[in-house]
Each structure stands twice: as C-alpha cells, then as structure tokens.
Design a protein that fits this description.
This protein is an alpha+beta fold. It folds into two domains: about 5-270 and about 495-525, Periplasmic binding protein-like II (D-Maltodextrin-Binding Protein, domain 2, 3-Layer(aba) Sandwich), CATH 3.40.190.10; about 275-495, Roll (Dipeptide-binding Protein, domain 3), CATH 3.10.105.10. It is about 25% helix and about 25% strand. It has 17 helices and 25 strands. Strand 5 (about 80-85) and strand 6 (about 90-95) form a beta hairpin. Helix 9 (about 290-300) runs antiparallel to helix 11 and helix 15 (about 455-465) runs antiparallel to helix 16 (about 470-485). The longest helix has 17 residues, at about 470-485. The radius of gyration is 24 Å and the shape is globular.
Length: about 525
C-alpha cells in the first residue's frame, strides 16, 4: 500500500522523552535524547525505502528531505527545491535546487540525483506519484526540467508526499533490495543508526544540516540529538506513560482520552486540523447493499451529531461528505451532502417493499434486513459501531457487530467478505476518491466494489484530464457528487489531530507546521532543562 493506504489506518503515535524501561530517568539524564513511540498503523513498517515501501513511519520524514513541503493550510513551501515554475500548458516544469546540500554519505545532491530518482519509481506501488512525468532533463547542476506526458496539476502535492523523500543514489543502488533495512541515507536532519523491524529505529542528528525548510524556526541540526523510535502497539500503555512522565508527547490522541489527560496539570496540548474522515463503507456486491435504496436509507439513518457528541466528545467536526472540509474540492452543493433524516430513511425502505415485522425488523421477499457491521478493535471504532447499531435499529435493520484487529479487517475487505464496515482514512487530497472508488482498485482499496461507467468516466476526467488546479477542483467536485448520489458511503466524523505532551519534559512550539507533526516541527522541539 502507498501513503494513502497507510494514512487510512493511522490512529495514534506517541513521542516519548527517555529511553528503555526507565524512560523518565533517561530523559532527565540527557537533555539531548528522546524517544518517539510509534503505535497503530505506523507499527510494522518493513523498511525505510520511500520509493518501494508500501508503509512508512515518521522515521522516513526525518531521514529524507523533499523538494517541496506542505503546510497545514495546504500551501506549498520550498525545501530542496528553491523555486519552480510551469509552462502555460502544464507540459513542463523547471526547478531550481538549493546549493550546498549533501547526503549523509557525503555524496552531493544535484540535478543528476533527480534524473536518477524519478525513473526508479517505475513498477513500484508509488509509480502513480510520477507517472505523468515523461523524462527529467538536467539543465545544469542546480536546475532540472520535468517534461510531462500530460499536464498534472497535482504534481506539487505529490512531490510533498512522504514517499517523495529522496535517497542517496550511491547508497540505494549499492544496497539493492536490502535498502531501507540495513541502511537508509537521505539529506534529512537525522541519520539512521539502526533499524530493527517491528521494534525500533535509532536516529542521530545530522550535525551538518543547514538547509531546513521555512516551516521550521530551526534551519540547522535538530535540538534533540538522539531519537529512538520504538514500536508499542498498545496505545493505552503510552497514555499511562504520558501521565507518569515516561512519555513526552502523544500524536493523534483519541478524543475519549482527552478529559482524563486535561485533568493533569503537567499535560498540555497542541492541535492541527484533521486530515481524514470516519465513515461507513458499503459492499455493493453483497446483499442488501447492492440495492441503492437500502444504501440510501442506511446513510440517512446515521446521526452524525449524536456520534460527534457521544463518541468523540464534541471534538472535531461532523462529516457529511467524503472529503475533508479544508479542501476546495469539498465545496459542493450543500443540498447534495448526506445528512441525518430518519423519516426519509424509513419512507425509502417502505417504498422499496421492506416491511416491518412484529419484532421491528424489516423483511422483503422472505429475507430479514439483518447485516453484519465490521469494526476494528480500537475504542473509537467499537463505540461508533455501537451507536450506529442503535441508529439502524430505528429503520428496522438488525445489526450484528463483528470486531477484528486492523489486519483482519483489511483482509476481510480485500476478500469482499464484509457487508458494512466502520472505516477511517487520513489523506489531504481529493484523489482519495480515486483510491477508494475507482474500478481499477477493486477489490482493494475499493472495497465498495463499485463499478459504474459514469463514475469511472468522471474519475478519469478528474485524475488525468484536468489541465489546471482550478479545473481539477471543478472535476473532482463533479466526481464526488456522483459518488454521493450512489450512496457508496455514510460519512460520520472529521477528527482534529490532537497532540498531548508532558510540559515538564518537552518544549513544543506553540504553532505546529506541516500537515502532521513531522520533520518541520520535530527539529524545533527541545528537551526541557
């Protein structure tokens, strides 16, 4: 899976001050050491190879720099590329590179690096990021040109992706298939000292780093000189460690933990706008959700406001479409959004011939309206499923909740065995619609199994025929409106990214930069004296 699939299941990451079992003692023992503890979807990354990996953790954003960085407001900022411009027809891009940049192995970073790098994506899961590029022309050491196969107004977004971190050509080619495990060499603020898959990655500061992006106050070497990024699957353990002083910071704090953390005087918070949506996903190849009427009624029976309050403690936003609210492509006609309407939901089922029995459960042609609702074992997923179960009972649907770990849920989706599932994605680009609903992605990640000529035509126009950013916005709006009209999902909630940290251990900037807490902010974090 590429970054979109990775982000679709991220739930929590923790940043800890200290090392080993006595993390609090270690944090106090050395002001230059800290530990990031990775949880949920970041656990299990098999390598730190940004070109071929299907799962990357925060580690990769610290080892590698990108040409361009994206900020929380969706704006783009220079990094390894000092400037860029495109032709009027979008068929060529010229980039000017920052001078004086070197890889961790001492090799120079220049236009020849880019000419080597882009072709390496051919045949990889991440090829889509650069598939609009025909070739790279190195004009001089610090200038190169992308000659395009087609105009791609999404190119700048792609270049800011975590999977577009640039590795050292010398190290990459020498290591072959073992690259990203035995070594990972970039130009970033941290060097990889060691990596044990499923356990931890140890990073040390790149003291020669002088090319931080303008998203960071600190343009030089990071303040924290040694980072041990451990994998601890149990998020509850990390939350307890935060309160007791063993953990310095939690990323992506689930809302149900906020009240108890807010009660601790040593805990402070930062937040960023959300990057994803929690939703119900239908399997259109499984009864009864092969019927548009049932999908529509189910979607209208979901009360987003009630779930927002009871499951997420009022934190974040109700969601009434598939895209996050900060995207221009999300500004569709409000009348087309999916809102709770219990009366209409019951009316739709009545007209479709679903009759209520004495037990309150509807039947049609002798078949009861009974379904299985799949959910992950994390608390927010389970609680959402329980509330949805009660809400769907009000339209005469008998819902059995089936709980699996995330790996098992994904396996079920890939096999098309589910009927309805509580899902979540994190991705701040409208092309998430392509990821989850294109016929080319059946059976997974298009686990709706939606296959429709009109939808696919609108997808093709949005993805490959948009010439300008403005045109792309219009085309994606039309594509999403079509998907909404077919009720392929029931949107529920758009969370805020909550970060809780122990202020006795860490000094965290008031304003976080970047779309998540990654390199741009990490280099500014200090251990408290």
């Amino acid at each position: 899976m590429n970054r979109r699939k990775f982000l679709a299941s991220v739930s929590a990451v923790t940043l800890a001050a200290g090392l080993g079992l006595d993390a609090r003692h270690s944090a106090r023992a050395s002001e230059s050491e800290a530990v990031f503890v990775l949880a949920s979807a970041e656990v299990g990354a098999a390598s730190q190879d940004p070109i071929r990996a299907t799962l990357l953790s925060t580690v990769a954003t610290l080892i590698y720099d990108r040409l361009i960085e994206q900020d929380v407001d969706q704006s783009y900022h220079p990094h390894l590329a000092e400037s860029w411009e495109t032709s009027a027809d979008g068929m060529s891009w010229i980039f000017k590179l920052r001078q004086g940049v070197r890889f961790h192995d001492g090799e120079p970073f220049n236009s020849a690096t880019i000419a080597w790098w882009i072709p390496k994506f051919k045949g990889t899961p991440n090829e889509y990021l650069v598939d609009a590029i025909d070739r790279v022309d190195a004009v001089d050491d610090q200038t190169f040109k992308f000659v395009m196969k087609r105009a791609d107004p999404n190119l700048i977004f792609n270049l800011a992706s975590a999977f577009m971190g640039i590795p050292s050509p010398k190290a990459y080619d020498a290591a072959g298939d073992s690259y990203g495990v035995t070594e990972a060499v970039g130009t970033g603020p941290y060097k990889l000292e060691s990596f044990a898959v499923g356990q931890e990655a140890v990073l040390v500061a790149n003291e020669e780093y002088t090319w931080g992006s303008d998203l960071s106050e600190n343009k030089g070497a990071p303040h924290i000189k040694r980072l041990t990024m451990r994998e601890i699957p149990d998020a509850s353990t990390a939350f307890l460690e935060l309160k007791t002083g063993g953990v310095g910071m939690l990323l992506g704090v689930p809302s149900q933990f906020l009240p108890q953390l807010e009660a601790d005087d040593n805990i402070s918070f930062r937040s960023l706008p959300g990057m994803g949506v929690t939703y119900l996903g239908f399997n259109t190849r499984k009864e009864p959700f092969d019927d548009l009427a049932v999908r529509q009624a189910t979607a209208l029976a979901v009360d987003q406001a009630a779930i927002h309050k009871s499951v997420f403690n009022g934190v974040g936003l109700e969601s009434h479409q598939f895209l996050i609210s900060s995207l221009a492509e999300s500004k569709i006609d409000p009348a087309l959004e999916i809102h709770h309407d219990l009366g209409k939901a019951n009316e739709i089922l009545d007209k479709a011939g679903w009759q209520r029995g004495s037990d309150g459960v509807r039947t049609k042609d002798g078949k009861p309206l009974k379904i299985k609702l799949t959910a992950q074992s994390e608390t927010s997923f389970k609680r959402t499923a329980e509330v949805v179960q009660a809400q769907l009972k009000a339209i005469g649907m008998d819902v059995e909740i089936v709980i699996f770990d995330n790996t098992s849920v994904v396996d079920q989706l890939k096999k098309g065995e589910h009927q309805l599932a509580v899902r979540h994605y994190d991705w701040n680009n409208a092309d998430i619609l392509d990821w989850f609903f294109s016929t080319t992605n059946i059976p997974y990640p298009n686990s709706t199994a939606w296959q429709d000529e009109k939808s696919q035509s609108l997808r093709d126009i949005a993805m490959t025929q948009s010439k300008t950013p403005e045109e792309r916005v219009v085309n994606f709006r039309k594509y999403q409106e079509n998907l909404i009209a077919n009720f392929l999902f029931a949107p529920i909630h758009e969370p805020v990214q909550n970060y809780a940290f122990n202020k006795t251990l860490l000094d965290v900037p008031e304003k976080l930069r970047g779309t998540q807490l990654v390199q741009a902010t990490v280099v500014d974090i200090k251990v408290v004296d």
